[in-house]
Recover the amino acids of this structure.
């Protein structure tokens, strides 16, 4: 991997670590989906699962960064994290991400956290507008695009 690729992965990990720290501070247990799947009864009702699989629109195994499961608040929210701090290709992948959200990911609520200020503004605008204008499965599926600050506000108000 190039030095730029290594730096981009490190920056993206910072976004993921912030999501983990936020949910952990709200009382969520953080563990891998694979570990949880072996024995879900072993764990509590407030979980943040990492590396959550799904079958993509291309028919191959994909993974999402997180899945929030809250029995107390009756929540099941898949979270995709996209960090782009400088010019790159993350925003070029938004249409693929969007189609996976509406066609392949089974959850009815999905958050796409996009930050880093390096994505093309029109790309984020397109993604946000596409997700806001349409409601899928008769209005049951909701996809929200937000930046990290908006996610933190959501967490602080919703996960009290």
């Amino acid at each position: 991997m190039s030095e730029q690729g290594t730096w981009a992965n490190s920056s993206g990990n910072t976004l993921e670590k912030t999501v983990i720290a936020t949910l952990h501070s709200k009382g969520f247990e953080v563990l891998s989906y694979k570990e949880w799947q072996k024995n879900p009864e072993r764990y509590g009702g407030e979980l943040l699962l990492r590396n959550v699989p799904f079958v993509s629109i291309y028919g191959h195994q994909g993974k999402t960064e997180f899945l929030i499961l809250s029995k107390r608040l009756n929540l099941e929210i898949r979270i995709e994290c996209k960090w782009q701090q400088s010019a790159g290709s993350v925003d070029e992948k938004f249409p693929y991400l969007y189609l996976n959200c509406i066609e392949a990911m089974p959850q009815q609520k999905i958050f796409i956290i996009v930050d880093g200020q390096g994505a093309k503004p029109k790309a984020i605008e397109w993604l946000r507008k596409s997700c806001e204008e349409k409601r899928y499965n008769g209005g049951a599926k909701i996809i929200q695009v937000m930046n990290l600050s908006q996610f933190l506000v959501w967490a602080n108000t919703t996960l009290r």
